[in-house]
Queue: 3 jobs
Job 1
Amino acid sequence: MVKLILKIFHSVFIGEITFLQMVPSVFLRWNDKQISLILESESLKTLVFGGEVFPKIILQYQRSKNLSIFNIYGITEVSCWATLHKITDETFESMIPLGACLDDTVLKVDKENDENEILEGGEIFIGSSTRICHIDDENPKKLTGTIYRATGDIGKVNEKGVFFIARKNKIIKRFGQKINLGTIENIIFDMTGLINKCVWSQEHNKLLNFIVVEGKFDPEYKKKMLDKIRVKVTSLLPENSIPDFMEVIEKLPLTSHGKVDEKSLEKLYSSIQLTENCNFVEVFSELWSKYVGISAGDLDRYKEYKFFETGGSSIKALQLLSEFKEVTNSDYPDQLLTAIFEKRYMDCLECFHNFTLKRQSSHENLQHIYEKRIKVDEDTMSIMWKYDLKACVDGTPLVFENENEVYIAVGAFSHIFVVLDEQGSEIYKETFPDAIEGQPLQSNQRNTIFVGCFDGAMYCINFICKETVWKYKTGDRIKSGPTYCRSKTAIVFGSYDKVAYCLSENGYEIWKTTLDGSITSNPTVDIKLEKIFITTVSGSCFCLKECDGTVRWRYTYQHPIFSSPCLSSDKTQVLCCDVKGTVFSLVVETGHLLWSFKTNNFIFSSPVLLEDCVTFGSIDKHIYFLKILPDGCELVAKTELDSRITSTSCIIQQNDKVFVVVACNSGKVSIIDSESHYVISSVQLPNEVFSSPVFYRDKIYIGCRDNNIYCLSIG
């Protein structure tokens, strides 16, 4: 390819070629000097780019007044080229349109049945009644009128024409949002002036970015350059668009067709690994600076700050730890998982004191696994209605009755909180000061609801009178859902300020107890035993006295706990799941560890009691079924689904049958038979799901990251 490019250069510059048509990736293989010579050549009259996105960087060069540059677009199925646009001064700083259609050719952007509304476009189709290439076994006699061919490209239309947005396969879903890899490339180019390429690695589940910088440079210079670029990228791109990996390369590899070879770039990423002799502290520090968007040289200034105080989040923390394992081929120190959520940067570095290489185990450590794969016998689920809350709905809805009517209450990241009737019609709507993610609770008054908000307040609202009855302010965000205690005369909940609160129904503080970490889970209350069980991000499970909040016992495990605890059917065991993937049981009376069961991946899902079993989901795409024994547990089965599971399941009991409703992050909601452990029905929602499903009267209610709350019928 290099020799061919040099031959073309000599042909253009020495042979005085007047017309040149090229794929942009091939043209950009020339260096700056060669590109300048070509564009300023007096012999070259016409330069045409096609086959890829028009290279806007070309417009930064000086060019001959006699040179005309065109953007050309089309597909082979409609005799190759279909549109042509001449570059003018007016298009110098704007998007480049596809241009006017050639003779007997039409262009349309079809939004119907297209999933790219978030990008304000649809798929581009090219049509013609004469310029038709027959595909496979098509019968030419049946091809009458204008025949449209799909391009596989997403475009949008305005008064200036049709504009290319991205290839359909360059639009991916990441963290619940659709992102355009081409847009990320453009933002990085506008920021740095450097050609770059984004690649989504399905194998590694990572977003890769390769930046082209010509010439040789030493590793230290390269490191500083990448550090500066990362800081800029992190500050300008939304969280779901920040690359997991960035690398500087001299040239983009090309395929035999002259287009960027993304497989070679993915292989390059796989080959860049740190050796066993790597400095773990240095790797961790670089990753910390990468994910919070701080220059590595400035980290000492932030050594007394926590990860979340410098721009981190739960997702970024887990990404950091996952990448640490990947690049070092070693597990991280056990105490680091808790430290990154609760402690300062300097405290996290202490976790590496006397730390030695811990090779990751490649074999499965679960014994006697009875595994079921997806087996959908019938598709009886359907969407009855949906309601748009204008932003992601990750919270679990509350479904309740009031005066024989069914209502659904839920909040969203848009700050909107609504109460809907059974048909999805709006009964109450209020915009709160911040996001709402915790599950609400209906009060004994029936027409009032308790709901926590990210502004740090617990609210009591009357959805009939449409008024706020009272609010109680804590010291930080509230994600924990309130639970009734003290014979249903009070509520208990936790806050990110590490405090468990008990309030009367009138909003008066009864007691508050400071624990050892932030509380994101819902408390579990045993009214008969007058005990409250609550978990913290620091990895502890507390048992509190219901009357005054006194700590009866505390058990601290190794890793953070985001899920809520549950009690065994005989009320003798309290079951918890830590984020690292361990389910453990504690004796209700003493808090002593009874048994533990380790999975192979993270757990955010809360355990749910299923007769004498407990079920929970995992990031490893499985739903587990554990039988609870007096002094241990037994893995009954695990069912493989199509993607990660972070939400909590719910139980359906119909006649003598018991079913489990599971929502995967992919947006698929499935019903599993608790006896056969097979999926018997499922439905696919349009976007990712982190909300937990709720079943009530033959219907399932669940939030989705397409901004809607859904009502599903199970027929």
Job 2
Amino acid sequence: VLAVAERLREQGRRVKRLTVSHAFHSALMEPMLADFAQALDGLTWNEPVIPVVSNVTAKQAEPGQLSDPAYWVDHVRSPVRFADGIAASGGSVFLELGPGGALTGAITESVDAVGVPALRDERGETQTLLAALARLFVHGTKVDWAAVLPEGATEAHVDLPTYAFDHQQYWLPAPRPLLDATALGQGAADHPLLGAVVQLPQSDGLVFTSRLSLRTHPWLADHAIGGVVLVPGTGLVELAVRAGDEVGCGVLDELVVEAPLVVPEQGGVRVQVAVGGPDETGARSVEVYSTRQDVGTESGPDAWTRHASGTLSTDSAATDTFDFTAWPPPGARQVDISGGYEKLTHAGYGYGPAFQCVRKVWRRDGELFAEVAVPQEQRENAAGFGIHPALLDAALHASILDAAAEVGDGAVAEEEAVVRLPFAWNGLTLHASGATSIRVRLLRPDPDTLSLEAVDDAGGLVLTLDSLVSRAVSGEQLEAAAGAPGTDALFQVEWSELPPVAGAGEVPEATVVEARTGAGETPVALVTRVLAAVQAWLADESAADGRLVVVTRGAVPAGGDQAVTDAGGAAVWGLVRAAQAENPGRITLIDTDADAGTDAGTDGPDLGPALASGEPQVAVRGAALYVPRLVRAAGSGESGLDPDGTVLITGGTGSLAGVLARHL
């Protein structure tokens, strides 16, 4: 069967694989005919009230024919003569009574007639049924409106014009470019997100160019994360896949998203997709850049931001795919996702109508399944994409909608929501283009990683993704990305002096751990001693409402030109910072002067002002208090690395390490 289907596709014919459990109406049904006949003998049969056209004989059924069990046994084994039956009925208007409109298309292909489905998938029943009645009425079918409309609605009539309404739009047309890509010496990209393509003869590479804005691509406004409109990660994937198609590389081996691509409210961004020349295996590099349109014609390195980089290849490793024939899969339990997108909005995911594409979600033993379809307004647009970014992005929503279904309505407000965005795509292959609806299977081996398979409604493979790693993105990162790109990404810690704190006094019910390197004590020994003290205090239930204060001396470079004088104390700060993150509000780090309390008979510094400040980390220098703050660093323009030296990167097999290695 699959071989025949493939042969027909090669001939340009439309082929659809039926999602059925058995080969009905064929010789393969003969083993069950005897049992089927025995089951039918126990039923009570009646003659039909209205005439019925038989799909076995393609004629109007004779009296007694449909009430004979032998007819239905023969029906299971015989071919369905649907087209012949439609032609034999002599009708010109047909009403399909069923859950969808699967037969309406077959009717109009069989005869020159009007087919009207009473119900449609994913559409409101009341509206669809009333629309069906209206279509029947305008095609000459008599409708009892009194039985359909509210009481009294049929008593008054309104005269309508005897001519057709003349529709005319008055929207100002968008300005058209005076010159197309060909006139500028470039090639047309033939893609909704790309305008032109330029070949680079010296490297056998390509550069795609485009301009994106909310005016030219208004559906992008429906992807606002943390209040900032971003091109979705799936949009960057679509750009890379389109570039790969141009050079015969059908596999996106890896694409690492380095910076979000912000679409401004006013104006637009210029986009370039650069494809490198082939290496010895045929693989090519791919990079996505952008610059704000208001930057002008500046061409320096600071004008452009690289948003993603990766690798394209020609071949993909053959892998077993999931069998989507039985849908939804047996044993899968449907997830209630009603109100899910409202919960995601409160969590920072501002998905508008264009991206609210998830229709249903099921869960089964670590697997997630979903039905995803782009809205009707985007369906015509989808034909120009490999896969519409909103459709692929929504396929990923199944995971967070499933998580949102298990979270109460108030949970998002009680806890600070963490927004995660796609970071590293690996092993993505697009098998078919232009899909408007897909069925998806998601696997999540760990909280930040997932894999995906997608097929169309006929079961044809659309896309496979080996892995996608996500990472958390803060509101500050999004705000920085929305500003001037590439100019404020480097930060450093600066110790700032606090104003005097009123109300300082004795240390209030605090356990103090002295973390100063003693005579002959190594940094490792000091850290081990402090770790044991911190763990013991955290394990003490009586200290649950108390505060732990870890005091070091000369462990941080705070207060002017002071340097670190206690390496062991500096290591303690790294250890206790991790403990603070795991136990917020319970531990305070205080660093004192290197010579504080060293004279015989003197006490250490007063810790009251430092504790009264409420800061988790404080450096006491005389009477002044200093706290660490992140500030933007003014770059010197000089690299601190020796270009001829060796750099050790731990975790070198990960995606982030790969980005760093390529940068170096």
Job 3
Amino acid sequence: MSASDKTKEVTAYNERALQRLAWAMEASQGQFSLIFAHCNYTYVQQQMTERLRESCPVPIREVVLKKSDRKLYSNIRQDLGDQQPGAMMVFGLEAVDDIDSLLTATNQVREEFRKNFHFPLVLWINDDVQTKLVRVAPDFESWGTTREFQTPPDSLSYELIYTLSQQAKEILATFPDSDPDKFLYELNRGIDDLSEFGLAWQDLHHHNQEIEPDLDAFFYFMAGRNYYVKQQFEQSLLYFQKSLDIWQRLTRCDWQGMVLFHIGLCPYVKPEGKKIFEQCVDSLAQISDQDLANRLITQVARVLQRLQRWEDLETLAQRSLKLHRASDNSIELAKDYGFLAEVALDKLAWNEAKELAEQALSILKTSLSDESTAISSEHKAKLDGMPSVDKAWYLLLLARAEKGLCKYQYSINYLEKAKAETQAHYAPELYIRILASWRELYLEKGDYLAAFGVKQERISIEQQFGLRAFIGTGRLQPKRRRTKSQLPALEQPEMVADEIIASGRQKDINNLVERIGNTSCKLTVIHGASGVGKSSLIYAGLVPILKQRAIGQRDVLPIPIRVYTDWVRQLGKLLVNSLKTRGLSLSVEADSVTTILEQLQENGDRNLLTVLIFDQFEELFSDLPDLVERNLLLEFLKTAIDYIPYTQVILSLREDSLH
């Protein structure tokens, strides 16, 4: 039988099964009946469900089970309340984590279904669920009738396996440049619907459908990752080994290295397992694209570093060091010494760590010097001025080694250099590690105030780049994205912080933006109790929104200020910086009340809407105790509000200071 004939036959069979299911549902109105709709593929299940809604006159209610559900009867009863629908369909049994417990509980309360459900109940099941029903809930299963739905094995099954292979390819493609934490998160999350891919793979083999070897290898690889998630490491290793055998026959060195790396992540009982990472490096080194090979090897080391698998990291780095020394790859050689320095720090071998870090720095310096001789003087200037993440890392290692040797001043000097060599927007994790080491150093010296300041900066960076779930009572900052350039960005794109959106403050921001656009409302006062989040609303919500959008036909220039001791100089400086980020300059020096007012007037002529935001305005009375100086600021505000067009003023202050 040809593939097209088989497809037609399956389609006709499914149509008949669908009609019988619809008739059974109609015939069971007002009484309980149990029907199992047996289908292995979500795609076919969705098609049949849609066709059933169109052809069956009975109103159908649907329930989708969650992975964590443990009671079928209770879930249905809770969803229904006192209602009795025409029919009910239940989806998601195959996705329930503890399906055995759910089916056991269902079998125990089966009489409740007959007593309380006066309608046909349709449960969608696959092969696995059917097997468990017969084994765990035989009494409940015996009540039901089954309607089978088939799948053309030569089309959908192959498409599913192909889809799985694309997911596997995506893992390898993104691995060299991905963050280690993201890789580990994806590894430990697994694939929810792998069972469906497994059924497709079985169908293809059962029908003697020819499968390319690489598709088999992809399936085994992804199956191995899923068993790894479940901590079923023997099964995981079994599938990884099957995948590795195929890649070795196909001489795909990149995939051999990738699978060996995953094998190495599994717990071992055999001593020879320690050689896996050496084999991983050897395989990756044979890739024709040497740049890709080096990036893959470095990423493997970074993941091991993140997992604190120091013994494995040492094994890998030693093998990689020999490889890069032989190929005269100095940049990668320096990284090898850096990883070995990390291992030495874990062993508290401070002098060894210091020597290794110094070696890495020396090799990096020589490498950059050699490379720069072969390039133009213009490019050399750019290269010399570019902050180096690698250099910052080696300086951090040196700082930690010096701290271990109780040479605190040397350690501080190295940390200062490390911080200057990197940018938070390019390598936030490294930047945070530098700050964490700095704080530990200050604490050890007893400088608690300095340690607190560094801690606050670290928390702020973690919040801005989504590396901290909760900031506590601190002021939120705008959300920022990491960039691909190490060069300092003149205008980092800022976004509304996730915490602002999650807390429901987006509506407040929208109301403020609408008010700012109203020319008759030139003064806005934000007030509330201390700690309620006024400053966070401004800096992490309102200001990023105003920077991104125009109001009417005008671009918005938000200028937040919260220091009032020298407010004229501070406001002038903020005004200059804000205009520079837009490529604009000042026609006058903004160093007095008069010149600032002139510049605000000119901003209006430049099609700008200036929004002056005075945060913690109650501090005015403590920062400016002199009445004359205080009145100068108040007169400035009055003039800006009454006489300067296209200038808005926002005051934020504590509620108890409104009087």
